Amino acid sequence: MMTNILKGDLNRRSAMGTILGMGAGLAATAMLAGCGKSEGSAPVTAGNIDGPPEKPNLKLGFIKLTDMAPLAIALEKGFFVEEGLNVTLEPQANWKVLLDGVIGGQLDAAHMLTGQPIAATIGYGTQARLIAPLSLDLNGNAITLSNKVWNMIKDSLPKQGGKPVHPISASYLRPVVERFKAEGKPFNMGMVFPVSTHNYELRYWLAAGGLNPGFYTPGDVAGTVGAEVNLSVTPPPQMPATLEAGTIEGYCVGEPWNQQAVAMGIGVPVVTDHQIWNNNPEKVLGLREDFAAQYPATTVALLRAVIKAQQWLDADGGANRAEAVEILARPNYVGADAAVIAASMTGRFTFEKGDTRPAEGFNIFFEQYAGYPFYSDAVWYLTQMRRWGQVAEDHPDEWYFDTARKVYRPDLYLAAANKLVEAGAIPASAIPETDGFRAPTDAFIDGMTYDGRAPNAYLAQFTIGLKQGQRVTSGGVTGA
């Protein structure tokens, strides 16, 4: 059932949203803390989104993860064709190759890490004007430890019915990390990309348990200054093999690569990301800003097709998930065993063999307004970039809002979604009444409250993380 997660907040449908007869809400995208439309973003009007797609032949990139499902379903169930699009889906070797493909124009759009268009816009790692007009899903990741480390901590964990109580805090790793240090060995864990959700979730979990995952110096992509746990990049499909080889002692990745470790008998997931931050935004549909400006009808058609696929994935309490698993298991998509994909995709999650638990919200594609690009989601990523030094200096709250507005494009999302409401394809209740911010939430593993309207106040709450006035150098953290 669709839940209004913004109940009691500053929620409202914009009365200006009658453009195109597509319902209320469209003009709300011009609103962000009293600021106007992002400079350079293309206006959405009846004149530039009606009519056939200007560029009907599209190539979209993806990484072999189950959360690319909306793209696979849009192709396999004919939603792209319904919108006049001829789409080719092309797997990419890693997140950098995918990002370069979108920036360079080899890919028209892609299943993208939420942090990628944000980082490119602020010039971290690369400089490009990318936008995210749609969020692909909520949740979907987990943190897995090697059997070696699991065996070192499992006896210390509280039990209920003979099984570990979840979520498991990273504090239980403290003796293991100290033992590694005493033996002169680093404690290494893997994540998929420096600006990935996985990096920030792994860092959040470690810091919440009292372990410092390290800071980034300007221009540095290692982020190991002051680290008690070293984090390194490994492409998602290679995570199990890297763990098995002993190069890392654990990792944070999307599915099915945590369940693959269980199936191979080489690792144990200890916490899911919906236990770290329930209903966290995961991937986005990312594309170049100038593509959307040059091909607005194509862009909105693409969004309509993906929104229909998202609805299909969550319809009737997940009744279509078994079919989705069969599709994703094909070699041209995720290419993992169907049983491994189903272990997390069908409302349950296996932590160990014999320990499968209900996880109804592990993958959300349409419910909970999963597709809507909330500005506050983008602001959260920016706070984590600042927390760990990827954003080197302090910025006022308005900088966070303005940056979010440049990247997230709810005007494009609403142009697509309201058209689907008008056609009866999705219910009007699927579109949130919002000013772009989710309500404050404390649905984090440490109980910390996040309010997207107050990013600097949020950052000030953390014991581990940069404080106002602090910077990172190769010698450590300096400043107030």
Automatic annotation (TrEMBL):
UniProt cross-references to Pfam families, sorted A to Z: NMT1_2
Keyword entries, A-Z: Cell inner membrane, Cell membrane, Membrane, Transport
Gene3D superfamilies (alphabetical): Periplasmic binding protein-like II
Signal peptide start and end residues: none
Chief localisation class: membrane
Cellular compartments annotated: Endomembrane system
Matching InterPro entries: NrtA/CpmA_ABC-bd_dom (IPR044527)
PANTHER family reported in the protein's UniProt record: ALIPHATIC SULFONATES-BINDING PROTEIN-RELATED, BLL4572 PROTEIN
Protein name per Swiss-Prot or TrEMBL: CmpA/NrtA family ABC transporter substrate-binding protein
Organism whose genome encodes this protein: Alteraurantiacibacter lauratis
